[in-house]
Amino acid sequence: AARILKRYTARVMSSGEDWRQASELLKEIQRLGLQPDALLCNTVIRACKQGRQWEQTLRLLEDMGSARLSADVVTCNATISACGHSSSRVEWLLYQLELMRQFLIGVSSG
């Protein structure tokens, strides 16, 4: 399973800023019944950020929390940056900060 995840992560990284392709590769991993790791999720989040897909970025962050994957500095920075492209920046940014706070509390207590 680890080898498959590494292979998919490399494919996502090679997709560059193509958030659609990165998101599809993530879905493909999930269809295979594999649990994505934080590196893969961060790579997809960065692609979504580059594609100005802040809503998709938020969904991915929520999915990470549901899967009990820890958000790290890369995750938080990419998510905040993606939210900067939102027309409702304040509301979404506050929402994101609350999610990140919850993740960080979970990381420090786990």
Q: Which term fits the overall shape?
A: globular
- Total helical segments: 6
Q: Helix amount, in percent?
A: over 70%
What gap, in angstroms, lies between the N and C termini? 24 Å
* Number of DSSP-assigned strands: 0
Largest sheet: none
Whole-angstrom Rg: 13 Å
Strand content: under 5%
Describe this structure in words.
This protein is mostly helical and 110 residues long. It is built from 6 helices and no strands. Helix 1 (2-14) packs antiparallel against helix 2 (19-31). The longest helix has 21 residues, at 89-109. It is globular, with a radius of gyration of 13 Å. It starts with a helix and ends with a helix. The mean pLDDT is 78.
At a glance:
With 110 residues, this protein is mainly alpha-helical. The protein has six helices and no strands.
